[in-house]
Amino acid sequence: MATPTLYEWIGGNETLEKLTRVFYEKVFKDDLLYAVFKNMPGDHSKHVAHFIGEVFGGPRLYTENDSGSHHKMIQHHIGKMLDEEKRKRWIALLLETVDEVGLPDDPEFRSALVGYLEWGSRLAVINSKETVNPIDTHEPMPKWGWGETGGPYIPK
Questions:
Q1: What span, in angstroms and rounded, lies between the C-alpha atoms of 22 and 85?
Q2: Which tens digit of pLDDT belongs to each residue from 81-138?
Q3: How much is the mean pLDDT over the chain?
Q4: Going from the N-terminus, what domains does the chain have, and what CATH number goes with each?
Q5: Rounded distance between C-alpha atoms, residue 72 and residue 62, angstroms
Q6: Peptide bond into 152 cis (omega under 30)
Q7: SS3 letters across the chain
C-alpha cells in the first residue's frame, strides 16, 4: 500500500477550500486578527487552500492556476509586523476550524499538520518584519509530508 500524500489524506481540494473558507470567516470576526486580514481579496481563502494543497503534495493549483509561488506567498507577509500573539491566535483558530470541519484526527496526520502550521506561521512572523523579500523569485514551493521516510503513516 502506497503512503498517501497529506493532500490525499486531508480529502483534497474541496476539503481544503472548505477549511480555509470557514477559517477566514472566523478571522474576519476576530478582534485581534481582523485588522491584519481586512483588506484581503475575496478569493484569499481559495488561494490559501491551493497553496496548502500544493505544499501537501496535491496538484499545482497555486502555482499554475493562481500564478503563485513561494516568493509571492512570502511577499504577502512582508511589512505586516506580525507578532507572537497574532500567530498563536491564528494557529488556535485554524486548529479549532480543523476540528469543526472534520479533518482527520489521527495523531500521525495531526502531528504533520501542526508541524507545518508551526513552521509556516513562525516564518510568516519573521518575514513580516522584513522590508524586502528574503527569498529568490525562483525558490521552489515547500513540500510537507509524513516525514523523511514516508512514516509515521499507519494505514487504518
A1: 21
A2: 899 999 999 999 999 999 999 999 999 999 999 999 999 999 999 988 888 888 888 8
A3: 88
A4: 9-128 (1.10.490.10)
A5: 10
A6: yes
A7: CCCCCHHHHHCHHHHHHHHHHHHHHHHCCCCCCHHHHCCCCCCHHHHHHHHHHHHCCCCCHHHHHCCCCHHHHHHCCCCCCCCHHHHHHHHHHHHHHHHHCCCCCCHHHHHHHHHHHHHHHHHHHHHHCCCCCCCCCCCCCCCCCCCCCCCCCCCC
More confident residue, 149 or 38: 38
Residue type, 2: A
* Amino acid at position 68, single letter: G
Q: Model's pTM, two decimal places? A: 0.88
